Amino acid sequence: MFNLTPAVRNILLINVLVFVAQQVLGDQTIMLALFPVGSPNYQPWQFLTYMFMHGGFMHILFNMFALISFGPLLEMQWGANRFLTFWLICGVGAGVLYSGVRYYELDKMNQARMEFRQDPSSGNYADFFRTYLPEAEGYRENARILQESPTPANIAQATENVDGIYNQSFNVPMLGASGAVFGILMAFAYLFPNTELMLLFIPFPIKAKYMVFGYAAFELIQGVYRVPGDTVAHFAHLGGMLIGFIVLKIWERSRGQFY
């Protein structure tokens, strides 16, 4: 596992250096993260830079552990250039797919916002928060006040709250190497499906193909049925897997370097 190959070592080093820069420079590095399309902070090059940033020590630890655990064997199979290409394609592709999902989610949020502005009722207010920010404190009380006293001042305050949540959503970026990492997991399971793995949270060996399939199912469920407070970009993980699978099927046609 710790016999690091050149590309894996360089990716690891870049991620660690960027993480250190994040700790030293703080918010000055935030423009490297991937903001939603339509945000004032969005830049096209963020599809590349976001994958070298992380939200905390445990975030980078798990991603880099997966990289050094599964990456070297793939690099030895493909060579450094192809491995690096695969890593970047999966990372960028995951960012693109996640941005598409996020654009759809924000469009639906905007529709709900406009519905409230057209009909500023307590029901529409509560529905907006129940759907998009159920963990927010006090929204039920605000909905009750709006129902009992729909004065212009209370309507204006409720509208400001709804607009604030919508506008704030455009300033929540996505960051991390997880999309690329999940592409690596897909590639490992595809090439070495019957390799048995010992995972920290499973007390018995499990074949790589079952581990990846189970992980994909878990991410899909978590993405579709998101629980309040969950900030994990589940669809970026699934995007990395999907892009990785597509690339693998394309490369499989040239078996000279694939196997």
UniProtKB/TrEMBL annotation:
A GO molecular-function annotation: peptidase activity
Transmembrane segments: 50-71, 83-104, 172-192, 204-225, 231-251
Main localisation: membrane
Family per similarity comment: Belongs to the peptidase S54 family.
Organism: Hymenobacter profundi
Name of protein: Rhomboid family intramembrane serine protease
Domain Peptidase S54 rhomboid: 43-100, 170-248
One BP annotation, GO: proteolysis
Membrane topology of the entry: Multi-pass membrane protein
Keywords: Hydrolase, Membrane, Protease, Transmembrane, Transmembrane helix
Extent of the signal sequence: none
InterPro entries membership: Peptidase_S54_rhomboid_dom, Rhomboid-like_sf, Rhomboid_protease_S54
Subcellular location: Membrane
